[in-house]
Amino acid sequence: PRARSALSDAGDRALSLSSFAAAGGFYSAALELTADGDRERPLLLFRLGEARFNNDEPSEDILVQAIGGLLETGNLEAAAEAEVILSHVAWSRGLRDEAFEHLERATTIVDDLPPSRAKVRVLSQRTRHFMLVTGDRGLRAVIRLTRGDLEGALEDTERALELARQSDDPH
Questions:
Q1: DSSP secondary-structure letter at 55?
Q2: Which of 4, 42, 71, 103 has its CB surrounded by the most CB atoms within 10 Å?
Q3: Per-residue pLDDT tens for 5-52?
Q4: What distance lies between CA 3 and its chain's CA centroid?
């Protein structure tokens, strides 16, 4: 446990310094010391997936595996953030519907949570994607969110979502 903890901490530090390849190496090494049923495994998988994504090496299978474990262990915020990363991967591959599905799952996960960094990330990314599809309405939601008007941002996001669903724009 001490070696795994040291490797995980080193990964966290490397990730915070945007040294994504090094972070991935540390998390991979920590995972090698972690049993399949260990409660720490899902978070390590998420962090590895996040590091690889930021290093332009998206690993969807790792993130999908992480989400299941994170939900089981009650780490809802990390599960939602993993869904956001998967939405970015899908979007970058031109899979708009899949990207929105990931964002919807992320939103469902954080809906009942109190305000947090993860919740803001989910809502802002969802609004960002809608803004790319719907233009002005999405932009208004982003502006409201940055000004702390969560209710107004959610209203605009709902309207933007409806417009995005009606749009035939592939982006």
A1: T
A2: 103
A3: 999 999 999 999 999 999 999 999 999 999 999 999 999 999 999 999
A4: 27
Distance CA 1, CA 59 (A): 25
Q: At what angle do helices 76-92 and 96-110 cross, to 10 degrees?
A: 170
CB 165 within 8 A of CB 133: no
Sole residue written with tokens 């919807």: 104
List of residues 6+ apart from 115 with CB closer than 8 A = 150
CA–chain centroid gap for 45, Å, is 13
**Distance in angstroms between the alpha carbons of the first and the last residue of the chain:** 45
85 contacts 50 by C-beta, under 8 angstroms: yes
Residues 150 and 132: their CA atoms lie apart, in Å, by 20
Close Cβ partners of 88 (under 8 Å, ≥ 6 residues apart): 53, 99, 125
Q: Would you say 46 and 81 are in contact if contact means Cβ atoms under 8 Å apart?
A: yes
User: In this model, does residue 75 exceed pLDDT 80?
Assistant: yes
